Predict the 3D structure of the following.
Amino acid sequence: MTIVQSHKRCSFMKEKIINILKEYNTDKGRLMDILLDIQGEYHHISDEAVRIIADQLDISKVDVEQTISFYHFFSLEPVGKYAIYLNDSAVANMFGREEVAKAFEKELGIPFNAVTGDGLVGIWDTADIGMNDQEPAALINGEIFPNLDPAKVKTIVSGIKSGKEIKDLLPAKVEDNIRKEGPVLFSEYEVGAGLKKALSLTPEQVVDEVKASNVRGRGGAGFPAGMKWDFCRKSGGDEVYLVCNADEGEPGTFKERVILTKLPKLLFEGMAIAAYALNVKEGIIYLRYEYSYLKALLESAIQEMRDEKLLGNAIGGKSGFDFDIRIQLGAGAYVCGEESGLLESMEGKRGEPRNRPPFPVEKGYLDKPTVVNNVETLCCVTKVMINGADWFKAIGTKESAGTKLLSISGDCEKPGVYEVDWGLSISEMLDMVGASSVQAVQVGGPSGTCIDPSHFNKKIAFEDLATGGSMIVIGQERNLLNDFVLNFMEFFIEESCGSCGPCRSLTVTLKNKLNRILSGDGTQNDIDELYNWAGVGAAVNRCGLGQTSARPIISTIENFRGLYEGLVKTDAQYLSAFNMDEAVSESCEVVGRVPNIKSH
Ligand SMILES: Cc1cc2nc3c(=O)[nH]c(=O)nc-3n(C[C@H](O)[C@H](O)[C@H](O)COP(=O)(O)O)c2cc1C
Ligand code: SF4
């Protein structure tokens, strides 16, 4: 390229980037959207682009680069015109991910984490993309390709090589796999009925009804929604925000993908009810990048609700009640599901969780009082409004009212989404999904707990076996420690934001120790040390990620200690990790000497 051509290209790019910035009012708070658009256009965010963004937003280049480097789907280097991200979750590996990965490498002629010489295609690993019921699955330029096999890979790659549009590469479609419709979320309802009821009450009465229903947060922590709303109202701010957490990043969960596809208006109505109760003008759905394929569908449902006067100005004819919803896409970071990391991300920054207090209800988005609620929680609110708190409380158990949406995957005949009453036992759940010969169930994803059959009589409920809804069934023939515990530890290492020392380094130490045991070089003492060290993170890390990242090790040592002990080949209390043969092998090779020292 000549110097003149290069100048022309740069000024064309500058013009384009400035236009993108203008679309977001050159607001640095919208940096995520700006970067997403530039990444989509140029398949990376070049040094020149970073400079232009920094200049125009009046922030430092380092600030822009920091945000870029935090998220999986932003890149300073080109990722390929077609960027293929193949899911590397434990469940993807159960169902043939390795053959699919090999087929991609063979058809493209490149290994993972590389781009073809002509810059056309790049192939990358990624963490769980919310498709555990239809694995192996890949994300290509934001579109999902589920149920892959080597033959489909061949078709995809040949389509790419012949320049096909993403949507024409394969007639692949994400399935909903709704296996059980329960009485709360999936029961018939008239859109707008919940809002109508809410508007017949005062905002205080709406909060009281939600409090009386005991709807607890479905995002995992189980905090009562009504109480959270009450705290927010009492924090006294005049500008209040409502954020719907649709980050759904816990490996094994995909129920919100289905709610967003099948019941978007139930959610938006729940948000409007919350907005009325909390005096919110703007609601934001933080949607994980992996679900960006749903954005157009959600936006059209939002528009329909505006047309029906269920969103917008003077909602339901009530003058002064103005509320609208926008969608904020994430860019790939599990920790952004943590509510304060999510708020940082929404402000265009790295998604590093904040120190708390203050809690978001006092100081949240843009430092204003903010309620963050999960998708399923807000859907429950709509039904509570329509049918009343007593109806809701009559379903489920004493401390867990209503139903729970489960995402069930792994070794079972009918993986998918099930709406069950709280209180269902694990044995009943396994019968329901057609699972026999079960070695373990991973309840609540990697940050939850791995249980053995002696716990299958436990009930799914906050007071017994609490869960955000991810359930992975692990059959007898699976290698629990290699294929699950190790995969989960690698996930947490990859996803730590790195702010806390123990979260950053302890997980790596634990993984190394685990690997030592898995390779047969461990001792009984190593198992005890692994268990004791694993307990440290819960006390010293700032957020839930670091506090739970050792759960895969802790729960499997507690419930499957025999598997660890079976790998220990010696009674010795201590074996040196230092291998002299290995350490001197390189120098021996140089001088042509055979190592003669026996290590161990
Ligand atoms: C690492 C981490 C990831 C999380 N991911 C999510 C998520 O994807 N969706 C969600 O609703 N809550 C997630 N949470 C919990 C949120 O911090 C928060 O409690 C929740 O969104 C509040 O909504 P709820 O009260 O309606 O459950 C996560 C927490 C942690 C520590
Ligand atoms: S615990 Fe881990 S993920 Fe959470 S703030 Fe600390 S380093 Fe970040």
Q: What stands out?
A: The first strand starts at residue 82 and ends at 87.
